[in-house]
Amino acid sequence: MELKVSLDNITITAYIKPIKLLDLKSLIENHTAIIVQTAMTDMFRAITRDGSHVRLLLDYDKLKGQAFNARPFRIEFNPNKLRQIDINILDTIIPYLEDIAISRVDLAFDIFEVDCSEFILEKKGRPTATKEWRDQNGKLETKYLGASRSEKQIRLYNKKVEQLENGSEEDKKFAQQFQHWWRLEFQLRSRSVEEIFEVIDSVIFKPFVFDDLPVETQIYLVAYTRNKNVWQKLHRNTRTKYKKILETYKTSDIDYLKLMKDLLKHERPILEKQLAYYGGRITEIAFNHLVENPVLTRSY
Description:
Elements: E1 2-16, H1 21-30, E2 34-40, E3 43-50, E4 53-61, H2 62-67, E5 73-77, H3 84-93, E6 97-112, E7 119-123, E8 130-134, E9 140-145, E10 152-158, H4 159-166, H5 169-175, E11 181-189, E12 203-207, H6 215-226, H7 228-231, H8 236-248, H9 256-278, H10 284-290, E13 297-299
Antiparallel strand pairs: 1-5, 1-6, 1-13, 2-3, 3-4, 4-5, 6-11, 7-12, 8-9, 9-10, 10-11
Helix pairs in contact: 4-5, 6-8, 9-10
């Protein structure tokens, strides 16, 4: 088994320093890797592309920003997918910006050579919107906790299948070397971005193995994890009892969630510096010095 933690999709919003607006427009217009899709006096939209995959999205709309009292410039990207030329563009643009905010960030845990199709993923505390997809044998393929536009959404999905279906040729080649590759992903927006290093504490994540418990208990736990409509019909005290069992019962000799928390704790300084750089709080030199040779993966 191998675990990896990384920052995935990131959105930053900002104001452009008035003295740098012309420099930014010149970069957008003249850089050979940047494709301009829309260009007007007070707005532009541009991208960089690797084949059919967009690597950087650059969007500026001064009038829309004024109308909604919002930062008018937005950049969207996945740090894991940036080429050197995309990194160079970011390194040029970030010093042009001020009042930068990170409005979205995904914290991703990649789980290699563990089949998570029979794992529990539930949120502690109050119930949340849940969607899941299972194959014809009842094995989990994808699960969502939280609505897609909410400030906080948690996803567990078969990353190998996703990459083989939607990835580049390089992505597919990488995915094919694994028998199993799953991803547990925490998507945070707006104020929830501040919870990035604590959000993992809000979930239950473990194999669904309760064979030593009474059959009645197993039935209740199946209802809790597989059929929320039935679960909500139970008395509140009954739900509380079995939620506690689900959270505390040891289902495996390996505490996967603890291993992920330990990895996050170990790599937190690098991830914090990465966020600080994208947020304009540290310089490119300071960032590159820290992450020159980052190791965000652990084998077990």
